Amino acid sequence: MCSKRNESYAKKVIERNKKIYIDSSALLNTARLASFIDNFKDIFIANNQRIIIIPAVCYELARHLDSDDSRKSQATMQAFELISANKEIFMVENNDLQESDLKTAFADKTLYEVLVHDRDNFSQLLITNDIPQSIDVLNQNELKSFWGRRVWVCKIDSTGSLKQLSDFEGPAYSKAKSNVLIKQKSTAEVKKTKEKKSSSSQKTKTTPVSLENSSITDDNCDSLIKWIYCISGATVGFCIGKWGRSMLNVLCAL
Questions:
Q1: What's the predicted TM-score (pTM) here?
Q2: Per residue, what are the HEC states of 223-252?
Q3: pLDDT tens for the 254 residues of the chain, in order
Q4: H helix or E strand, kind and range, residue 92
Q5: For 125, which of 17, 52, 177, 236 could close a Cys bridge (C-beta 3.0–4.6 Å)?
Q6: Is 133 part of a structural domain of the chain?
Q7: Domain containing 122: what range?
Q8: What is the CATH number of the domain that holds 183?
């Protein structure tokens, strides 16, 4: 249970932001998510506010169902159950899901782009327990090339309270920030190396590789069949059909 002070803070944040998004890291910690819902469901309803789950997050959750880590696949099913049981406060953007995007969707990048795009229109909140993602999104508030409204970033703590970034800055935050800077530098160096190699190999003739007769299709089918078995163990009552379409049916049922 959260404190009165945090309840007041959460109420302010929910009221001030026109759009509220949540990422996979916050959804998959289902114990915290359940406490968060218990703490603030009434506030969301009173303000006619809902938490948006973008398609890329849906795809990421669906992929976790096929994880070799049983804890992760179980957490995903529990997250689906919580979302399905609390439709008053969740809005799943599942109207235009494409089967081809199941494997390639990357939620961190998509969320970043969505938040940047709408900064000049209204204030937004991202709920995430991913510190590197938090740092990247908060850096949008420092952009100099164009004006935008503040982007808020909060996490869900062990009591289901909504905490702003400053509340969980510490050794873990400092280490994550350092890693982000190192990764950015490393990525820039790798890009330069790739550009150099690409330039030197332009004159080299390459032979296209055909996957028509490879075993990739069979492996994918086996993996997706396991995926279906995993989903069918969930208690949310979703209908399972053919593997590719079934994944989208599960997401559309949320």
A1: 0.71
A2: HHHHHHHHHHCCCCCCCCCCHHHHHHHHHH
A3: 889 999 999 999 999 999 999 999 999 999 999 999 999 999 999 999 999 999 999 888 888 877 788 888 899 889 989 999 999 999 998 777 777 777 788 899 999 999 999 998 999 999 999 999 999 999 988 888 878 899 999 999 999 999 987 655 544 445 545 554 445 455 555 556 655 665 555 544 433 333 233 333 344 444 433 444 444 444 333 433 334 455 566 666 66
A4: strand 90-92
A5: 17
A6: yes
A7: 4-190
A8: 3.40.50.1010
